[in-house]
UniProtKB/TrEMBL annotation:
Residues 292-315 are annotated as: Disordered. This is Protein OSCP1-like. It comes from the Eukaryota. Transmembrane segments: none annotated. One of its GO terms (cellular component) is plasma membrane. Residues 292-304 have a biased composition (Acidic residues). Pfam families: Oscp1. It comes from Dinoponera quadriceps.
Length: 354
């Protein structure tokens, strides 16, 4: 099993989680102030330095059950509440979207570009300064971590991820509508503009490090902070512009979303001052991923199969490369256990109220 798989699985699943949450927050017309707070809080929790320090260790891959435990705490880190059914549906979506993207990847560089597409979306989706710093940090960590890895090692990491996800088989309506999935939950890998043709070039590239090969040799695709990734995989499939716009327009859509939220939030504050709106913006709320009220509910799936997966029990080793960087940002976050206690206390309070 590859020792470079965990960051790929964790960051891509986390990115898909944010895509789903944003889509449902918008579809259910959640207050814009709460929407901004949820996206900021969840992103900051996802990229918590304490979590990243263990994710970026060259140890055997963490299994899906353990990743789910971590990502559940991330999802509950804000004022949003998800019941068990919604949480199950959220993870089905996350797993199947990442499984499709890794299945459709045409080479090792595209695997990293898919991850960077998720990081780009996080950067455009959040407004909190601390969350932005964490996004910038994790982008550099990805480039440094995988830049020194050979093509074959990255490809092996992809294979390990797919093997970990092999038993999960769920039909996702948005993939079915786009012709990317069949009724039996298998995928239709449709050729797209980016194609590394790694199977044909493997003999010459296998032992070379990613950073030592020119992007043009592998269909382009920049690892830079604001570079053009070239590949569509890893972008937000729930956006109406998915597949028909370039990277710049997609980013502009995300930025416009934040500007609209900001403008509406200012109007909301004005309404508060005028006495026409309630002042409690910190009230917890429930986000329902099972709702069919809005035509934008493109993330319903059926035929979910529960499967048990072995968890990696190996003890992680300390990764000294990023410890210094991570410690610089660690004080920006609450202790992980305290955050969990706060979230669980909130759920207990909601149960009493309801």
């Amino acid at each position: 099993m590859s020792s470079h798989s965990t960051p790929i699985l964790y960051l891509n699943m986390g990115g898909e989680m944010l895509y789903v949450l944003r889509q449902r927050l918008k579809a259910q017309r959640i207050d814009v102030g709460k929407t901004i707070q949820v996206l900021d809080d969840v992103t900051a929790a996802l990229l918590n330095p304490k979590i990243l320090s263990s994710i970026f260790e060259e140890t055997p891959m963490i299994g899906v059950p353990q990743l789910r435990s971590t990502l559940e705490r991330v999802a509950l880190s804000s004022i949003m509440k998800l019941d068990k059914s919604s949480m199950d549906k959220l993870f089905d979506l996350m797993i199947m979207m990442v499984k499709y993207q890794l299945t459709a990847a045409t080479g090792p560089r595209e695997v990293i570009l898919i991850t960077l597409n998720h990081i780009d979306a996080m950067r455009d989706m959040v407004s909190d300064v601390n969350a932005q710093k964490c996004v910038t940090l994790v982008h550099q960590m990805i480039v440094d971590f995988y830049g020194c890895v050979t093509f074959d090692e990255v490809w092996s990491a992809r294979q390990s991820c797919l093997k970990e996800l092999e038993l999960y088989s769920v039909r996702v309506s948005i993939l079915l509508r786009r012709g990317l999935q069949n009724e039996d939950a298998s995928f239709n890998v449709i050729p797209h503009k980016y194609d590394e043709k790694y199977a044909e070039r493997r003999n010459g590239l296998a032992t070379m490090r990613l950073k030592d090969v020119s992007p043009e040799t592998c269909c382009g695709g920049s690892f830079g902070t604001f570079g053009d990734r070239k590949t569509l995989l890893g972008k937000n499939i729930y956006l109406p512009t998915y597949g028909i716009t370039d990277n710049t327009n997609s980013r502009r859509d995300n930025q416009q979303f934040l500007r609209d939220c900001g403008a509406k939030a200012e109007l909301g504050m004005l309404a508060v001052q005028l006495g026409t709106e309630e002042t409690n913006y910190e009230r917890p709320f429930t986000l329902n991923l099972l709702s069919n009220e809005d035509e934008e509910n493109a993330n319903n799936e059926v035929d979910a199969e529960g499967n048990s997966v072995k968890r990696a029990d190996s003890k992680p080793k300390v990764n000294e490369d990023y410890r210094a960087k991570l410690d610089m940002y660690a004080d920006l976050f609450e202790d992980e256990q305290e955050g969990l206690k706060r979230s669980m206390g909130l759920l207990e309070l909601l149960d009493k109220v309801e």
